[in-house]
Amino acid sequence: MTTESKQPAGKCPVMHGAMTESGKSVTDWWPESLNLDILHQHDRKTNPMDEDFDYRTEVRKLDFDQLKKDMHALMTESQEWWPADWGHYGGLMIRLAWHAAGTYRIADGRGGGGTGSQRFAPLNSWPDNGNLDKARRLLWPIKKKYGNKISWADLMILAGTVAYESMGLPAYGFSFGRVDVWHPEKDIYWGAEKEWLAPSDERYENVDEPDTMENPLAAVQMGLIYVNPEGVNGNPDPLKTAEQVRVTFKRMAMNDEETVALTAGGHTVGKCHGNGDAAACGPAPEAADLEEQGFGWKNPNQQGKSSNSLTSGLEGAWTTQPTVFDMGYFDMLFGHEWEPRKSPAGAWQWEPIDIKDDDKPVDTDDPMLRHNPIMTDADMAMKMDPTYRQICEKFMADPEYFRDSFARAWFKLTHRDLGPKTRYIGPDVPDEDLIWQDPVPAGNTDYCVETVKKRIAETNLSIAEMVSTAWDSARTFRGSDMRGGANGAHIRLAPQKDWEGNEPVRLTKVLETYKTISAETGASIADIIVLAGGVGIEQAARAAGYDVLVPFHKGRGDASQEMTDVESFEPLEPVADGFRNWQKQNYVVKPEELMLDRAQLLGLTAAEMTVLIGGMRVLGTNFGGTKHGVFTEREGQLSNDFFVNLTDMAYSWKPAGDNLYEIRDRKTDALKWTATRFDLVFGSNSILRSYAEVYAQDDAGEKFVKDFVKSWTKVMNADRFDLLS
Asked: Is 382 in contact with 394 (CB distance < 8 Å)?
C-alpha cells in the first residue's frame, strides 16, 4: 500500500491565485494601500531580448527601402481570412496607426504609439479598436521577416504612413526608433468607469461643458480613442459634438486647423463597418477562447466578405473613391444635405438626403453595387461649427495647402510622443525643425568644467539654492513622451520661469548669477544649472565626511523663447513635488500618489525615489524652506539622517492638521520635527520602509551617498538622448 496521498478526482492541482486573476492581490484586500507597481513595471524579466540588445542601434541596420517596398505590396495583397476593402488594406492600416498614436494626451504625455502597447490589454480589446487584431496579424509576415530590426511600435505607425503613400499622399516624413514594451503599461489611467462605453457624464463634471472632463483624460468615453461617432452619449447633435471634439483634440496636442485636417484627411479614405447584428459578434481578444489564437470579435455572419464586417456599428464610406487621397471628403460633405439615420447595426450616422448613384461608393466586394456614403456626428461638426467650417473652406480653396496641412498633422500625430528630433532615426527624417519638437540648439563644449565649477563655488549661493534650481529644471522630464528636462534651460523662459513650484524670486536670483558665469566661461546656462547642482551635492557630501564626484556631461544648449511653444509647455507644470515636499493645493488623490506619478515619469524605481527623497530633505531643498521632513540636526550635509530618525522608535507620530504631522519624543512629548505624508509614507508603507531601513543602518552612510549621486545623475541626464544609442 502506497503512502502517497491521492489527488481527489476533479480537484485542480494548482493554486489559482498564483496563476490567474481569480486570486486577490494586496490592493484587492487593502484598496487604500499605496500601489508601487508603476515604478516596477517593464522589469528585465519580462523582456525576451538579450541584456545587451538595443533596438535603437539594431534598427539602423534595417534595409529601409526594401521594408517600404514590402509594405506597399502588402496593401493590395488581400487575404482570404480577412479580405481587404476594395482589395486595399490602406484604410485598416491607417486606423491601426491612428488608434495606436491617438491615445496620446498632453496632460501627462502618456499613451501614444511609441511603445507598441496596442498589442496588450486593455488597448487590444477596447471597443474602438475592434478588428485591429486583424491588422496586426496581417503585418506579422513583415515583422517575422525583419525580426528584431523593426519594433512592433515602429511597424504599426509605418503601416499607416505607407498606406497614405499607397493611396496618393506623399509622407511629410517618418522616423524609426520606437522601442517595444513587453507587457501592459499599468501606469496609464484610462478612467474610473467600470464598463466599456459608459456614458460620458461619468468623466465630466458637466457633460455640456467639455472643459470639465477629468484630467488627464482626453477621450470622451472609456474604450474610445476620441469622441463618440454617433454623437454625445450616442445622440446626434453636431454642434454639441464639435465642442467635445475641440477639447479632446486640444488635450491630444492639436489645434483647430490640425483637428479639421486630421478629420478630413482621415475620412478621405476607408470606411466604417456596421453591416449586420453587432450582438452576434464574439468577445474581444482578451476574453476569447484559446482556439481563437488572439483574435476577437468573431463575426459568424461575415461569410468571407469584407462588406459584412462589424466594427464601429456605423456602415459606409465617406467618399466616392475610398482608396484615393483626394478632395472627395469636402465634395461629399459640402455638396449634399444630410440627415441622421440608423445603420444596419443600429448606430446613428448621417446620410445624404439626395445623391446621384455615380457619386455613391461601390460595395467593397461587388463593384456592381453602390451604397450611400455616410458621415459621423464629428464630420457634421466640421460643416456646422463656424470655426471648423471656415477652416474647411480654406482647405477647399487650396487643395495643396490641405494636403500639406494633413501630412504635417499626421506626422505630428504619429511622432508626438517620440520626443525631440535628436531621437529620430532613418532616411525620411524631415530637415525642418518644428516647434512641437521642443528644438534646442547644440550646446558649447569648448569650455573648462573645472573653471566653471570654481566660479560656481565662489558665489554666495547656498547648497539648497543650487540643488533646488537644478532639480526644478530637470524634474519636468517625462519619459512618457520624452519632453521636458534640463536641456534647453527652459526654466529661464515663459511659462516655466513664472511657475509657483519654481519659486520665481529665488529662481531669478540664481539665474542672474549663472548668466554672469555663462558670459565669462562660454558654458550654457543649461549646463551651469546642472553643474551647480552637482557642486552643491559635492560640498554637502564633503561636509558629511564623504569625498564624491558627481558625474557631469557638458553639451546642453539654451533654447530661446521663440523656440518654445508656451501653450504646450503649460501641462508640464508640476502641481506637486514630493521630492521638495510641496503641493500646490489639496487634490482628490493622496500626496504620496502624486509623488509616485512624478517618479514614474522621471523613470525612477521605488528605491531610487526613496534615496532621492532622503537626500533632498537633509540638503534643505524643501519648497519655501519649510522644515517638514528635515529629520536632521546637520542640514546641508549629505547624511542618511532622514532614514535614521524616521525609523527611530524613540519618537511617535501624530496628525497635526491637513497633510501635517508632528514627531514627538515618546518620553517627554517634546516636539522634535514636523512632516507630511510625503515623508511618513517611507515609514508606513512596507515596501518603502524596507528601502528606508537599508539606508538607516549603521553601515549605510557611504552606500546612501553613492546611491543618491547615481539617482541624481540619472534625473539630470534623463533628457540627454545624445548620451544614449
From this structure: no
